[in-house]
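This protein record is not my work; I was only asked to verify it. Take the sequence as given and treat only the tokens as open to question. I have pasted the whole thing underneath without changing anything:
***
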Amino acid sequence: MAEQQVQPLHNEKHANTKIQNGINVEFLKTQHLVPVVAHEFARVANEFPMSFVKNNETGQFQAVAMFGLEPGENLFVQDGKWTAAFAPMATTRYPLGLVKHPQEDQYGIVIDEASPLVGETEGNALFENGEETDYLKRRKEALVSFIEFSHVTEAFTKYLADKELLVAQTLTVDIKGEKKDINGIYLIDEKKLNELSDEDFLELRKRGYLAPIFSFLTSTHQVARLARLKAQQA
């Protein structure tokens, strides 16, 4: 895989730079888990199973969409193409990113110049006469939204963890008659959810957490889809 060449975006240096539409399949084809934000859970649930993974160093949980059943496997990339009907925000940001300036509470935009989506001949221009194009403005807004959505999702996830609603699970899938266990993932404990006091349940509703919780629970059925895809590709 080509090395990334991440540089701050500059209207002079990148005066003629264009970005093609699409996602970085080259990078994605080895990703089996990708972070998702609560705002897109409903759409994610239509395509992928979701789970939470725990960072063993910090103890923090992160919501992820599962693209494969084992590390390095993405069942939604075939023949160099993305086959799902939807791609989570974390994947559509590329080749742009936001970097926080260490001293101030501001973000700067960076671009991966080595990306196959970046060039000077094809795609959407970023600058015109030194000014940002509408395309770049929209991309910037999406990057900022993603950061905001990520903070909301962190708070949501922490709340679930504090209420002990996340439970370590082993998912068992059937691939061509062979049982396979997937470990190291956490799901929302439906039993505990149903046993919450009226007060706690009302709190979930007030915070707007019920919709993402139900989307998350629905998404688990998509594990069977991954198993089917894996069996087909085998």
About this structure: The chain has a mean pLDDT of 91.
